[in-house]
Specification:
The chain is mainly alpha-helical. It contains 20 helices and two strands. A two-stranded antiparallel sheet has the order 1-2. Strand 1 and strand 2 form a beta hairpin. Helix 10 packs parallel to helix 12 and helix 10 packs antiparallel against helix 19. The N and C termini lie far apart (44 Å).
């Protein structure tokens, strides 16, 4: 079975290399949904399924130099220069890591950049014409229904056959926990990880809502997809994704709704709040989110304010050891996690926040460069809110969703789904300056 999985991944990689445009993006997204990061195509050095399909994508870009050059030429210079500076920062952080030889440092720097910020290019290089968004939204509609629906079904049924198959085949463990299981419900669907499932459902909800917003109540299929995606986010167990989705909904409502529509939305939110308060099942789903803002709540295990403050203090201690360039990539997992006293007694367990990793591993220079890059992207979308409100709102919402979840619960998995979509939103606005096509219905 293991070799069947690997063969399928390689077939997807070949298809990615063969095709271009939005078809290539759809194949790429399907591959990272069906074959999660836990699948190792090669064990030494470890190369995951996600890395294989990402490498295939960039090979596909390189073998089409004219198309790539045209896309780069259209990109505003300040966006690619800020991304280049982040890349140079990755190199310096790895080179300054005393644990690594120069060759290993270069490999680790490129791996981390390749698995995170460079994925923005996956969406950016996939959209030549905005008319292709019609095909993308149709794909995301059915993908959202299947992914969210399967996750809900497995949570209710109490078993996840696909997750169990991957666990047996690759000797890995997921965090799946059914609806009636002990502890917090954690659905995984095809993505093998509850946080990835919750984030994907939230990002897909935002995208589909914006693309199908007009006459939504008269469109049963998109409405059903949105309902499934919301429930999927709720039962994923990812409190950060659910809270981020709520904030995105408020932002989208303020930007895109008229005065009357805002009043209707407020009434709907009020009714939903009352339903949550009076329904025991819904109240149980919301209580874990409230725990995040409490102090001294032991059961939240790394997710409330008091524990986060303690973890921040510890992160700052390690930050002072190498303030400029950080202690190096994977320092948390390779050096700190094995220290059971630090993880258990000192309370560093559950410190997945991207801020803590930036302080410990990346250093001040990287924090400045990455913050500047994120801010430049945000300003770009904000500047186009008036001219291209739907596309700018799409990009800004996904960016906010990604940053919020990263600061709350880490970034390693979720960025694989968010950055390609943000790249699409970015390219859509750039294309609008030369094309008149827009998704308006």
């Amino acid at each position: 079975m293991k070799y069947i999985f690997i063969l399928l991944i390689l077939l997807f990689a070949v298809a990615i290399i063969r095709y271009s445009g939005i078809k290539r993006f759809v194949i790429y997204l399907t591959a990272i949904i069906l074959f999660p990061f836990s699948i190792a195509v090669l064990n030494s050095p470890r190369i995951s399924s996600n890395e294989v399909v990402a490498l295939a994508f960039f090979i596909s870009v390189v073998i089409r130099p004219k198309e790539a050059a045209e896309a780069i030429r259209k990109c505003p210079w300040y966006l690619w220069v800020s991304l280049l500076l982040v890349y140079l920062g990755h190199l310096m952080t790895a080179v300054m890591d005393h644990r690594l030889a120069l060759g290993s440092a270069m490999l680790k720097a490129h791996t981390h950049f390749f698995d995170s910020f460079l994925l923005l290019a996956v969406g950016y290089f996939s959209l030549r014409h905005n008319v292709s968004l019609y095909h993308l939204r149709r794909y995301l509609l059915w993908a959202g229904i299947l992914v969210a629906g399967y996750g809900i079904l497995t949570a209710v049924a109490g078993t996840d056959p696909y997750t169990m198959l991957i666990e047996r085949t690759f000797n890995v463990t997921s965090d799946f926990n059914p609806l009636r299981g002990a502890g917090r419900t954690r659905a995984c669907s095809f993505l093998f990880n509850s946080h990835a499932y919750g984030f994907f459902c939230a990002a897909c909800f935002v995208t589909l809502f914006l693309f199908y917003r007009r006459n939504l109540l008269r469109r049963p299929l998109p409405l059903a997809a949105l309902a499934l995606l919301f429930v999927g986010t709720a039962i994923s167990g990812s409190r950060s994704s659910l809270l981020a989705l709520a904030l995105c909904a408020v932002f989208i409502g303020l930007v895109t709704f008229s005065g009357v529509q805002r009043m209707k939305a407020f009434a709907a939110i009020l009714m939903l709040t009352v339903a949550v308060l009076v329904t025991p099942f819904l109240r149980e789903r919301i209580e874990p989110i409230v725990d995040v803002f409490r102090t001294g709540e032991v059961k939240t295990a790394g997710s409330n304010i008091e524990l986060r403050k303690n973890q921040l203090d510890i992160a700052l201690i390690f930050h002072r050891k190498s303030p400029l360039w950080g202690n190096g990539y994977d320092y948390y997992s390779e050096v700190l996690v094995p220290d059971q006293k630090l993880i258990g007694n000192e309370g560093l367990a559950g410190a997945e926040s991207y801020l803590f990793l930036l302080l410990i591993e990346d250093g001040t220079v990287q924090i400045v460069l990455i913050s500047a890059f994120m801010l430049i992207m945000a300003i770009y979308f904000i500047c186009h809110l008036r001219g291209h409100p739907i596309y700018a709102t799409w990009g800004l919402s996904l960016l906010g969703l990604m940053v919020f979840v990263a600061l709350a619960s880490g970034m390693s998995i979720n960025w694989k789904y968010s950055l390609p979509l943000i790249g699409l939103a970015l390219k859509t606005i750039i294309n609008c300056q030369r094309q008149k096509t827009a998704i308006t219905s």
